Task: structure prediction
Amino acid sequence: MKEETKNELRKKQRTVNTSLLASIYFLLSFIAWTVLVTCVDVKDIGPNKSQVGLSTLNGFFHSLTGCSMVLYEITDWLGLVPIFVAFCFGIFGLVQWIKRKSLLKVDFDILALGGFYIIVICVYILFEFTTINFRPVLINGYLEKSYPSSTTMLVMCVMITLVMQINRRIKSTSIKLCLDFLVITFTVFMVIGRLISGVHWISDIIGGALLSTGLVALYRGIIKSI
Result:
Protein backbone atom coordinates (compact mmCIF):
# COMPACT_ATOMS: atom_id res chain seq x y z
CA MET A 1 0.00 0.00 0.00
CA LYS A 2 2.80 2.42 0.90
CA GLU A 3 4.57 1.68 -2.37
CA GLU A 4 1.34 2.30 -4.32
CA THR A 5 0.86 5.58 -2.47
CA LYS A 6 4.42 6.64 -3.28
CA ASN A 7 3.89 5.77 -6.96
CA GLU A 8 0.67 7.77 -7.03
CA LEU A 9 2.39 10.75 -5.43
CA ARG A 10 5.26 10.57 -7.92
CA LYS A 11 2.79 10.35 -10.82
CA LYS A 12 0.85 13.30 -9.44
CA GLN A 13 4.02 15.36 -9.04
CA ARG A 14 5.08 14.56 -12.62
CA THR A 15 1.69 15.77 -13.85
CA VAL A 16 2.02 18.99 -11.87
CA ASN A 17 5.58 19.58 -13.08
CA THR A 18 4.61 18.88 -16.70
CA SER A 19 1.69 21.31 -16.52
CA LEU A 20 3.76 24.08 -14.92
CA LEU A 21 6.58 23.62 -17.42
CA ALA A 22 4.05 23.70 -20.26
CA SER A 23 2.62 26.89 -18.81
CA ILE A 24 6.04 28.56 -18.73
CA TYR A 25 6.80 27.37 -22.28
CA PHE A 26 3.56 28.68 -23.79
CA LEU A 27 3.62 31.97 -21.87
CA LEU A 28 7.20 32.62 -22.96
CA SER A 29 6.20 31.64 -26.51
CA PHE A 30 3.39 34.18 -26.32
CA ILE A 31 5.81 36.89 -25.23
CA ALA A 32 8.24 35.99 -28.03
CA TRP A 33 5.38 35.92 -30.57
CA THR A 34 4.17 39.32 -29.37
CA VAL A 35 7.66 40.77 -29.86
CA LEU A 36 7.72 39.37 -33.40
CA VAL A 37 4.29 40.82 -34.17
CA THR A 38 5.40 44.19 -32.80
CA CYS A 39 8.80 44.44 -34.49
CA VAL A 40 9.06 42.19 -37.55
CA ASP A 41 7.85 42.98 -41.09
CA VAL A 42 5.71 45.92 -39.98
CA LYS A 43 3.87 47.55 -42.91
CA ASP A 44 0.79 49.70 -43.39
CA ILE A 45 -1.44 47.01 -44.92
CA GLY A 46 -4.38 47.55 -42.55
CA PRO A 47 -7.40 49.82 -42.96
CA ASN A 48 -6.58 53.56 -42.90
CA LYS A 49 -2.92 52.65 -43.47
CA SER A 50 -2.68 51.05 -40.02
CA GLN A 51 0.62 49.34 -39.25
CA VAL A 52 0.59 45.53 -39.08
CA GLY A 53 3.39 43.28 -37.86
CA LEU A 54 4.27 40.06 -39.73
CA SER A 55 2.50 41.76 -42.62
CA THR A 56 3.49 39.23 -45.29
CA LEU A 57 2.04 36.29 -43.33
CA ASN A 58 -1.00 38.23 -42.15
CA GLY A 59 -1.73 39.78 -45.52
CA PHE A 60 -1.40 36.47 -47.36
CA PHE A 61 -3.72 34.60 -44.99
CA HIS A 62 -6.29 37.42 -45.00
CA SER A 63 -6.32 37.37 -48.80
CA LEU A 64 -7.25 33.68 -48.62
CA THR A 65 -10.10 34.03 -46.13
CA GLY A 66 -11.55 37.39 -47.07
CA CYS A 67 -14.13 38.72 -44.63
CA SER A 68 -17.43 37.18 -43.54
CA MET A 69 -19.43 39.51 -41.30
CA VAL A 70 -22.06 36.77 -40.88
CA LEU A 71 -19.50 34.42 -39.33
CA TYR A 72 -18.17 37.33 -37.29
CA GLU A 73 -21.64 38.02 -35.87
CA ILE A 74 -22.25 34.32 -35.15
CA THR A 75 -18.97 33.91 -33.25
CA ASP A 76 -19.54 37.24 -31.52
CA TRP A 77 -22.92 36.18 -30.13
CA LEU A 78 -21.66 32.69 -29.26
CA GLY A 79 -18.95 34.46 -27.25
CA LEU A 80 -21.66 34.89 -24.62
CA VAL A 81 -21.55 31.12 -23.96
CA PRO A 82 -18.20 31.13 -22.08
CA ILE A 83 -19.33 34.23 -20.18
CA PHE A 84 -22.45 32.31 -19.09
CA VAL A 85 -20.31 29.30 -18.10
CA ALA A 86 -18.03 31.51 -15.98
CA PHE A 87 -21.09 33.11 -14.37
CA CYS A 88 -22.48 29.66 -13.48
CA PHE A 89 -19.23 28.66 -11.78
CA GLY A 90 -19.28 31.96 -9.92
CA ILE A 91 -22.78 31.16 -8.62
CA PHE A 92 -21.66 27.62 -7.76
CA GLY A 93 -18.77 28.95 -5.69
CA LEU A 94 -21.00 31.55 -4.01
CA VAL A 95 -23.51 28.86 -3.00
CA GLN A 96 -20.72 26.77 -1.48
CA TRP A 97 -19.43 29.84 0.38
CA ILE A 98 -22.87 30.59 1.83
CA LYS A 99 -23.63 26.97 2.77
CA ARG A 100 -20.25 26.30 4.33
CA LYS A 101 -20.05 29.77 5.91
CA SER A 102 -16.41 30.22 4.99
CA LEU A 103 -14.62 31.16 1.78
CA LEU A 104 -11.78 28.82 2.72
CA LYS A 105 -14.22 25.87 2.74
CA VAL A 106 -15.15 26.37 -0.91
CA ASP A 107 -13.67 23.59 -3.08
CA PHE A 108 -10.07 24.47 -3.87
CA ASP A 109 -10.46 23.93 -7.62
CA ILE A 110 -13.40 26.37 -7.65
CA LEU A 111 -11.44 28.98 -5.71
CA ALA A 112 -8.54 28.48 -8.13
CA LEU A 113 -10.97 28.82 -11.04
CA GLY A 114 -12.16 32.14 -9.64
CA GLY A 115 -8.56 33.33 -9.43
CA PHE A 116 -7.99 32.06 -12.96
CA TYR A 117 -10.95 34.08 -14.25
CA ILE A 118 -9.58 37.19 -12.53
CA ILE A 119 -6.24 36.70 -14.31
CA VAL A 120 -8.02 36.30 -17.66
CA ILE A 121 -9.99 39.52 -17.04
CA CYS A 122 -6.80 41.39 -16.08
CA VAL A 123 -5.04 40.21 -19.24
CA TYR A 124 -8.07 41.26 -21.30
CA ILE A 125 -8.03 44.74 -19.74
CA LEU A 126 -4.27 45.03 -20.27
CA PHE A 127 -4.57 44.48 -24.00
CA GLU A 128 -7.57 46.79 -24.23
CA PHE A 129 -5.09 49.54 -23.33
CA THR A 130 -2.18 48.16 -25.38
CA THR A 131 -2.12 48.51 -29.15
CA ILE A 132 -0.24 45.77 -30.99
CA ASN A 133 -2.34 45.41 -34.15
CA PHE A 134 -5.65 46.75 -35.42
CA ARG A 135 -8.25 44.57 -37.13
CA PRO A 136 -7.94 43.94 -40.89
CA VAL A 137 -11.43 45.45 -41.35
CA LEU A 138 -13.30 48.42 -39.93
CA ILE A 139 -16.05 47.58 -37.45
CA ASN A 140 -18.89 50.10 -37.73
CA GLY A 141 -16.45 52.46 -39.40
CA TYR A 142 -13.86 52.29 -36.60
CA LEU A 143 -10.46 50.70 -36.18
CA GLU A 144 -10.46 48.28 -33.27
CA LYS A 145 -7.54 46.67 -31.45
CA SER A 146 -7.23 43.03 -32.42
CA TYR A 147 -4.20 41.50 -30.67
CA PRO A 148 -4.51 39.00 -29.15
CA SER A 149 -7.93 37.71 -30.18
CA SER A 150 -9.99 38.22 -27.01
CA THR A 151 -12.67 35.81 -28.24
CA THR A 152 -10.08 33.08 -28.79
CA MET A 153 -8.60 33.72 -25.34
CA LEU A 154 -11.99 33.77 -23.59
CA VAL A 155 -13.33 30.65 -25.30
CA MET A 156 -10.19 28.57 -24.84
CA CYS A 157 -9.65 29.61 -21.21
CA VAL A 158 -13.23 29.08 -20.07
CA MET A 159 -14.27 26.09 -22.14
CA ILE A 160 -11.10 24.04 -21.62
CA THR A 161 -11.27 24.59 -17.87
CA LEU A 162 -14.94 23.56 -18.15
CA VAL A 163 -13.74 20.22 -19.57
CA MET A 164 -11.44 19.84 -16.55
CA GLN A 165 -14.35 20.50 -14.20
CA ILE A 166 -16.56 18.02 -16.06
CA ASN A 167 -13.90 15.33 -15.77
CA ARG A 168 -13.42 16.02 -12.05
CA ARG A 169 -17.08 16.20 -11.04
CA ILE A 170 -19.02 13.79 -13.27
CA LYS A 171 -18.60 10.08 -12.60
CA SER A 172 -20.41 8.64 -15.62
CA THR A 173 -17.88 7.96 -18.36
CA SER A 174 -20.46 8.17 -21.14
CA ILE A 175 -21.79 11.54 -19.95
CA LYS A 176 -18.25 12.86 -19.55
CA LEU A 177 -17.30 11.80 -23.09
CA CYS A 178 -20.46 13.33 -24.52
CA LEU A 179 -20.01 16.65 -22.73
CA ASP A 180 -16.29 16.77 -23.49
CA PHE A 181 -17.02 16.23 -27.20
CA LEU A 182 -19.62 19.01 -27.26
CA VAL A 183 -17.41 21.49 -25.41
CA ILE A 184 -14.30 20.76 -27.48
CA THR A 185 -16.28 20.90 -30.74
CA PHE A 186 -17.69 24.28 -29.72
CA THR A 187 -14.21 25.55 -28.83
CA VAL A 188 -12.70 24.42 -32.14
CA PHE A 189 -15.61 25.94 -34.09
CA MET A 190 -15.20 29.27 -32.31
CA VAL A 191 -11.43 29.51 -32.87
CA ILE A 192 -11.57 28.42 -36.51
CA GLY A 193 -14.69 30.51 -37.11
CA ARG A 194 -12.97 33.59 -35.72
CA LEU A 195 -9.93 32.87 -37.87
CA ILE A 196 -11.75 32.45 -41.20
CA SER A 197 -14.24 35.24 -40.53
CA GLY A 198 -11.46 37.62 -41.52
CA VAL A 199 -11.96 40.06 -38.62
CA HIS A 200 -8.61 39.07 -37.11
CA TRP A 201 -5.14 38.66 -38.50
CA ILE A 202 -3.85 35.10 -38.13
CA SER A 203 -1.20 36.45 -35.73
CA ASP A 204 -4.02 37.60 -33.41
CA ILE A 205 -5.45 34.08 -33.26
CA ILE A 206 -2.05 32.46 -32.72
CA GLY A 207 -1.28 34.95 -29.95
CA GLY A 208 -4.63 34.30 -28.26
CA ALA A 209 -4.12 30.53 -28.49
CA LEU A 210 -0.59 30.64 -27.04
CA LEU A 211 -1.65 32.86 -24.15
CA SER A 212 -4.74 30.75 -23.37
CA THR A 213 -2.80 27.49 -23.46
CA GLY A 214 -0.22 28.89 -21.04
CA LEU A 215 -2.87 30.11 -18.61
CA VAL A 216 -4.89 26.88 -18.79
CA ALA A 217 -1.76 24.78 -18.21
CA LEU A 218 -1.05 26.91 -15.13
CA TYR A 219 -4.56 26.28 -13.78
CA ARG A 220 -4.20 22.55 -14.48
CA GLY A 221 -0.91 22.41 -12.60
CA ILE A 222 -2.47 24.18 -9.61
CA ILE A 223 -5.53 21.96 -9.31
CA LYS A 224 -3.50 18.78 -9.89
CA SER A 225 -1.30 19.71 -6.95
CA ILE A 226 -4.10 19.13 -4.43
Summary: The chain has a mean pLDDT of 91.
